[in-house]
């Protein structure tokens, strides 16, 4: 993971923002020795400011899953800047509405944004025109 962090830092030197997506979660294995997304984030910390944003699902089970993820990130010595709720349904049910209200309470993290379901399939122009509506202004 240290080598991957070094290469990532080298290839992105000078960039204002580098997004490293941990698809599947922070404990996903990235190499045959068991290195995880979380270990990559810790390795990148040596190269500068690492800001972690956790993407949470909207539905049932997200409170537990998100709290465990945030605890793992903090346990690794990293801060969590906030949460983004992904795939928000057009007609949210009780579970989704309650989760949106409770996520801050159970994690201590602010909600940075809520992305509507299906937005990943939108054209780049439509996505760019709408993204400002979904993301909260930094505190």
Spell out the blueprint of helices and strands.
Elements lengths: L1 H10 L25 H9 L6 E6 L4 H14 L4 E9 L5 H14 L3 E6 L7 H11 L5
Parallel strand pairs: 1-2, 2-3
Question: What features would you highlight for this structure?
Answer:
139 residues, alpha/beta, Rossmann fold, 3-stranded parallel β-sheet, 5 helices, 3 strands, 42% helix, 15% strand, globular
Q: Strand arrangement, largest sheet? A: 1-2-3
DSSP strand content: 15-25%
Q: Decide which structural class fits the backbone.
A: alpha/beta
Percentage of residues in helical conformation = 40-55%
Biggest sheet overview = 3 strands, parallel
Return the string of H and E elements: HHEHEHEH
Q: Number of helical runs?
A: 5
Characterization of the model:
This protein is α/β, with parallel strands linked by helices and 139 residues long. The chain has two domains: 1-50, no CATH class; 51-139, Rossmann fold, CATH 3.40.50. Helices cover 42% and strands 15% of the residues. The chain has five helices and three strands; from the N terminus they run ααβαβαβα. The protein has helices at 2-11, 37-45, 62-75, 94-107, 124-134, and strands at 52-57, 80-88, 111-116. Helix 4 (94-107) links the parallel strand 2 and strand 3 (111-116). Helix 3 (62-75) runs parallel beside helix 4. The protein is globular.
């Amino acid at each position: 993971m240290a080598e991957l962090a070094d290469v990532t830092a080298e290839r992105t030197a000078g960039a204002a923002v580098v997004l490293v997506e941990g698809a599947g979660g922070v404990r996903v294995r990235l190499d045959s020795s068991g290195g995880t997304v979380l270990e990559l984030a810790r390795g990148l910390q040596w190269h500068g400011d690492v800001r972690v944003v956790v993407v949470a699902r909207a539905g049932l089970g997200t409170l537990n899953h998100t709290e465990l993820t945030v605890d793992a990130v903090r346990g690794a010595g990293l801060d969590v800047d906030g949460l983004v709720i992904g795939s928000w349904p057009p007609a949210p049910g009780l579970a989704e509405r309650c989760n949106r209200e409770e996520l801050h309470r159970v994690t201590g993290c602010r909600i940075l944004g809520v992305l509507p379901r299906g937005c990943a399939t939108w054209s780049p122009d439509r996505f760019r025109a709408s993204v400002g509506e979904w993301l909260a202004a930094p505190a």
